[in-house]
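Summary for the lay section of the report: proteins are chains of building blocks that fold into shapes. Here we show the chain for Universal stress protein and then a coded description of the shape we predicted for it.
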Amino acid sequence: MNTILVPIDFSNLTDHLLNEAIDYAKDTRSKVYLLHVASLDLGFVIGDLGFQYLPELEDAGMKEEISELKKYESKLKAESIDVEIIIKQGIPSEIILQEAEKLNVRMIVMGSHGKGFFMDVLLGSVSNEIIKKSKIPVLIIPSKILNK
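The coded shape description reads as follows.
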């Protein structure tokens, strides 16, 4: 079975990326892993005493992100696509590459925000890191396509 990993960042391009991933998954009869990498600072606040960790904030943030992922999961299931959701905390490029290898996916499908400098202008910093380090093929959907 073909498998693809689709990193989701909940940006304004996510719905468009998901539509492209759905088309690709249907064309290739692929199972889709939707991966969201949550921020490492989830649950931390800056107050009078400096940085403070509040686990209830982390729990609330993770529940909200899981809820959003489940909405995307439902959208893919409605299209008869086999899908699993994954949420991890860490550095996005590292987690994406680790999960892609662990899951033995055939391709990583991700969007490009096109923000930053030089290559980051074309791809985005996370996309750029993935392309440089991945041993797995990467399909980048340009922001111009995602913004249409």
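Put simply, here is one thing we learned. Residues 56 and 136 are 37 Å apart (CA to CA).
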